[in-house]
Amino acid sequence: MEDLIILGSGCAGNTAAVYAARANLNPLVVAGHEPGGQLSLTTLVENFPGFPEGIQGPELVENIKKQAEHFGARYLHGTVIEADLSRRPFRLNVDGEWHEARALIVATGASARWLNLPNEQKLIGHGVSSCATCDGFFYRGKKIMVIGGGDSAMEEANFLTRFGQEVLLVHRRAEFRASKIMLERARENPKIQFLTNTVVEDVFDVSQNLVTGVRLRNLKTGETWEREVDGFFVAIGHIPNTAPFRGQMELDEDGYIVSKGGARTSVTGVFHAGDVQDRTYRQAITAAGAGCMAALEAERFLEGG
Ligand code: NAP
After folding, report:
1. pLDDT per residue over 121-162, tens digit each?
2. What domains, with CATH codes, occur in the chain?
3. Whose CA is closest to 275, among 3, 15, 79?
4. Which end of the chain is more exposed for a tag (fewer CB within 10 A), N or C?
């Protein structure tokens, strides 16, 4: 039986582990299906305070893990496939093996939704990105493409006009899911062009390990053509990793954990940290802060019995 199990080894989970380990809670971290979380998929991170020259995403998250291990946190490779939060101790099925814990921090993150193009995953961090805030800066004066028709796509396209010489927004329909105000803002931005009823068939060029262009297809006419692109931003939503908790704690309609104030969830003794609850900020630094909050609350909860 563990005092504290932390689910997820991204910025939020690892930071929670640092704080919990320093509080002598001897936490067990279940690394999850994407160890290191979304930072492990990025390259240079330039906006995490404390690194004037920037730091590679995988290095940053690995450093936090080492820091947690230094204070006694233990890491278990695996993913929670089933959970029973109906009573304490909580029970978690990690790849077929059951574990018990008196308190739980859920920091399982949200995974970016991808288009699943043949070459998309191979070029992540080399021109393919799911985060304009993280990577926009690298495309100064370049040709940028944003995929999606929701608020995220509008927001990212607007943001990216600060950097790119052009931003082409590609959407599969003629109607947009984005709110009116966000759509209008994007339409009024002279640097943004819209391409509707259009999908991307693939992104190139894996042989150069760099995005150089895409192949597009008009869904109305069937016409296909290629276009030069340097930065390819996919903004078609995120999927919170909460499947094992469905019906176990309060989730919103998209599956994000509903916060009950601070790091509390609807289940006493279960705390949230990072993107699994946060659909607004989604930054490494906010996830780290949330991990700290969750650990402090878990500590208080365990002390109080
Ligand atoms: P979203 O509203 O679900 O929109 C996703 C968009 O991606 C849709 O236009 C969808 O097209 C498109 N899409 C999905 N799968 C696709 C695929 N396989 N190929 C091509 N296109 C695909 O997601 P979101 O924009 O990330 O927003 C999520 C939530 O956060 C929303 O509630 C939004 O209002 C909120 N948000 C708010 C702000 C803000 O207020 N500042 C900023 C960002 C997000 P279809 O329309 O054809 O389905």
Report:
1. 999 999 999 989 889 999 999 999 999 999 989 999 999 999
2. 2-111+238-304 (3.50.50.60), 114-234 (3.50.50.60)
3. 15
4. C
